[in-house]
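[step 3/7] fold_predict: job queued, chain A
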Amino acid sequence: MMQVALPDACVCGRPRHRGMCSERWALRRSGEGAPPRPKLKHSAPGAPKRRFTEHTPPGAPYTLAPDHPAVREARTLFAARRVRAALQERLLKSAEHNRKIGGSVTKGHLRGVKVFTLTLEERATCPKTCANWRDCYGNNMNWSARIQVDGDLMILLSAEVRKLVAVHGRILVRLHVLGDFFSTPYVAFWHALLHALPGLHVYGYTARNGCAIGREIERMNEHPRCWIRFSGGRTGQFRALTVDTVDQAREAGAIVCPVQTNRTDCCGSCGLCWQSPRAIAFLKH
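[step 4/7] structure written:
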């Protein structure tokens, strides 16, 4: 093993010693001898707590080629970020770690409610008819852990959701940061939780149009605490669509996501997706 040479004396003049003497502490405070550390931007007072506050600007998404292995094999671009549910400390992450969503709701009937997110594997759980099959925004999310679908997923999720509701009283779960509803039993699982737990609220988006899974989601949407918007080719209210420009959204009669147009800080300070029936448009990113 390579030996690293250590200095014979501390900056205070005494022989090298353990602990933080006043001179070393002063140097640390002043930043001398160390590269400057970037100053973190924190959420504004009264705003939803967010670990990161800078948003990814809308623009050209990362589009995979039609013959790319991730496209052909219906999987994420980042195979190393697939994780088993049973090996995770928690499946539902506080949304304060998501710069766009925010850790809590600050307006409307859900004001004060904590927000949590669930991330599955994009493409592996999505229909191939999804309009964003090749240019999914997950192509830019190389650090996100994708929970794999296995026999442990719903068992562990049930216990975790019940615990969070017991602790916080009311919670709002985003389904899903990545991925989609992958089966009718999975939709029925969330539908049953909504009936069993009065403190559970869910919102999200799905590309399951015109299929058995989609019809099950429509039934779940009849519950007053469920707001899952359909994306893609559907028309009418309570839908989501992806556009290249603001003008395209206006032509479709949709509201452009206020977070993307800098009209609000994050989802927690907006609330349109779980309060308004109007179509919401998202700029490609």
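[step 5/7] annotate
Helices lie at 22-30, 69-72, 153-168, 184-196, 212-220, 246-251.
DSSP finds six helices and ten strands in the chain.
exit 0
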